């Protein structure tokens, strides 16, 4: 009931990154979407949850954007020698069945040590990440990236790639302003990057740093997210993050919700341009050129 009351007071918004399929609490998801004020992007973590994402998005095609991918935390469980075998074949099939589906959550995590292991399985993470990034390029799909304690490695991989997906989302961005600006200035690809923030990951500590980084994100690249598994907690998480974003940007909460929703739509529909599909409603707008802000200082 409390979550429903909060939804009623939220302006229309888009939770651009979450894992609500993992809780298996579908009634809570239905309640969140009941009045169509909140749109959500479900992020896959491993093959075991992809079918549930597909099922939920089929029930709410206007409110749920499906994403399929192998999260770096599970890369060690799904190592495959070739891009055409096993889970990669499954992933390609899931994406090809729905031209509106995107690729996520994928990436690198320099501090995650899987249970039963003594150290980070970074080589396997990198192998899975490279395969999925190339698949996103081949299918012209946006990607949502996980990056923890691997900003340099991630930056170098993306900077030296011959091609990148049409849009790249750095979710729950925890890097400093200086690194953010490096991504935005990346030769050939800087205008493809978006940056998301969640109260779950970004408001745990040092809110001053988070506010400064949000202020430095170009207005048309800022995304709102919850990064949660339990839908009943999403409304409050979005409300908290909207207030922090609004303060950082000097906007109203309503304007912040509208801007981040428009940005999410542009990001998630960037892959539809090449497919020329009407699978989902679209009002695609090109990314206008932006000047990288330095008003928040160096990072």
Protein described:
By secondary structure, this protein is of the alpha/beta class. It has 12 helices and 8 strands. It has helices spanning 2-9, 26-33, 50-59, 87-97, 122-139, 151-159, 177-184, 199-202, 207-216, 234-249, 253-268, 272-275, and strands spanning 13-18, 38-43, 64-68, 102-109, 143-148, 168-170, 193-197, 222-224. An 8-stranded parallel beta sheet has the order 1-2-3-4-5-6-7-8. Helix 2 (26-33) links the parallel strand 1 and strand 2. Helix 10 packs across helix 11. The chain is globular. The model is unreliable at 277-299 (pLDDT under 50).
Global morphology: globular
What is the H/E order? HEHEHEHEHEHEHEHHEHHH
The main β sheet shows up as: 8 strands, parallel
Helix vs. strand class: alpha/beta
Strand order of the largest sheet: 1-2-3-4-5-6-7-8
**Strand portion, in percent?**
5-15%
Averaged pLDDT = 89
For the record, give the distance between the C-alpha atoms at the N and C termini, rounded to a whole number: 41 Å
- The number of helical runs is 12
User: What is the radius of gyration?
Assistant: 18 Å
Contiguous low-pLDDT stretches (5 residues minimum) are 277-299
| Helical percentage | 40-55%
**Total beta strands:** 8
